[in-house]
Design goal:
The structure is a single chain. By secondary structure, the chain is α/β, with parallel strands linked by helices. It has a single domain, classed as Rossmann fold (3-Layer(aba) Sandwich), CATH 3.40.50. 48% of the residues lie in helices and 14% in strands. The strands form two sheets. Strands 2-3-1-4-7 form a five-stranded parallel β-sheet, with helices on both faces. It has a two-stranded antiparallel sheet with strand order 5-6. α1 packs across α8, α2 crosses α3 and α6 packs across α7. The model has no long low-confidence stretch (mean pLDDT 92). It binds adenosine monophosphate.
Length: 217
């Protein structure tokens, strides 16, 4: 079977993390989320975490060289040989070019880029209700995807948290950063004929069905 190498693009709050977890499990490929990797480093207090933290807390982007190095290391692990799903990377054209150089060295190419989109008011509602498990990274929403027991992770029983960068002041900043830096990636991958846009306004199941249609041979 051909290796499936996917990129998930889209603004914060669009639900790409939720779809990424589903699809990665379905195709048995690793879900590589730079946001999750960075939050783990911050929690561990590593050198990398210390460098990344200031940018993350303010809703800005971590510098390209740090993120590119993280991804190159992750993709070199054996579980990525059969494919992978990149979630939240690349975020800038510079990162996309660095990824292309890494892939060229490995004689690999990207199978498809899925671009998840939804209007700003939907994104803001989703971000402010979002809760996350700090341990296993499962995502919830107080209205649309509540855990069985309020405040507790269904999967591992840890206490759920609201991400610092999901607080109202930071949400607006993250959407602005996204618009400035990430939208040029949409044009880049459209020009490469790799892009499929997924309307992400609907329920998790509806969006999931649209993802499967976009990837059908
Ligand atoms: P996310 O969970 O994808 O929303 O990422 C949370 C935060 O981690 C972002 O607001 C950035 O500060 C940082 N981050 C994640 N991925 C990247 C990336 N590819 N480039 C730069 N910063 C990133």
């Amino acid at each position: 079977m051909m290796a499936l190498r996917l990129i998930f693009l889209g603004p914060p709050g669009v639900g790409k993390g939720t779809q990424a977890v589903r699809l990665a499990a379905l195709h048995r490929i690793p879900h590589v989320s730079t946001g999750d990797i960075l939050r783990t480093e911050v929690a561990a207090g590593s050198d990398l975490g210390k460098k990344a933290r200031q940018f993350m807390d303010q809703g800005g982007l971590v510098p390209d060289d740090l993120v590119v190095a993280i991804v190159a290391r992750r993709l070199a692990l054996p579980d990525c040989e059969a494919g992978y799903l990149l979630d939240g990377f690349p975020r800038t054209l510079g990162q996309a070019k660095a990824l292309e150089a890494t892939l060229a060295q490995r004689k690999e190419n990207i199978s498809r880029v899925l671009y998840f989109s939804a209007p700003d008011d939907v994104l803001i509602r989703r971000l402010s209700g979002r809760r996350a498990c700090p341990k296993c990274h499962a995502n919830y929403h107080v209205e649309t995807l509540p855990p069985k027991q309020a405040g507790t992770c269904d999967r591992c029983g840890s206490a759920l948290i609201q991400r610092k960068d999901d607080l109202p002041g930071t949400v607006r900043q993250r959407l602005d950063v996204y618009k400035k830096q990430t939208e040029e990636l949409v044009r880049h991958y459209a020009a490469e004929k790799l892009l499929s846009e997924i309307d992400s306004t609907g329920t998790v199941d509806l969006v999931g069905a649209a993802v499967e249609r976009a990837l059908a041979p």
